């Protein structure tokens, strides 16, 4: 199979949020995602594009989603999509996220693939995994 030339240069996850100001506060101020662009338009339209470091698209079949939920939460809870954010201190960022308005789904848990993963419901109706790679 010949090598594929990548055509995608950026991934943007677009989330419709009912409470725009609360979502901006949480993702920008609590999780520390820096604003890259922001626009306002007619009729009160607003958008803020926040930096999230490197983006990947993770495609998982049903068995994998069930495995991840079992490891992180102990039961199936994942919606159609879940956002996973790599952080340097999963326990500390989880505490900050909870203080900042997220709801705990599962405490930070060490996974079989050697990461520390916490599951949260965050503003904007986004289910988050905060994960810390623990190394070898």
From TrEMBL:
Cross-referenced InterPro entries: Glyas_Bleomycin-R_OHBP_Dase, Glyas_Fos-R_dOase_dom, VOC_core
Bilayer-spanning residue ranges: none
Annotated SUPFAM superfamilies: Glyoxalase/Bleomycin resistance protein/Dihydroxybiphenyl dioxygenase (SSF54593)
Gene3D superfamilies (alphabetical): 2,3-Dihydroxybiphenyl 1,2-Dioxygenase, domain 1 (3.10.180.10)
Residue ranges of every copy of the VOC domain listed in the record: 7-133
Name by which UniProt lists this protein: VOC family protein
Lineage: Bacteria, Bacillati, Actinomycetota, Actinomycetes, Micrococcales
């Amino acid at each position: 199979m010949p090598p594929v030339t990548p055509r995608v240069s950026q991934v943007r996850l677009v989330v419709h949020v009912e409470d725009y100001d609360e979502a901006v506060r949480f993702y920008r101020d609590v999780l520390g995602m820096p604003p890259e662009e922001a626009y306002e338009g007619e009729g009160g339209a607003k958008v803020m594009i926040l930096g999230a470091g490197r983006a990947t698209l993770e495609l998982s079949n049903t068995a994998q989603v069930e495995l991840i939920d079992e490891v992180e939460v102990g039961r199936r809870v994942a919606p159609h999509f879940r956002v996973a954010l790599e952080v340097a201190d999963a326990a500390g960022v989880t505490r900050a996220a909870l203080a900042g308005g997220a709801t705990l789904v599962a405490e930070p848990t060490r996974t079989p693939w050697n990461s520390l993963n916490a599951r949260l419901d965050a503003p904007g109706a986004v289910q988050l995994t905060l994960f810390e790679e623990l190394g070898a």
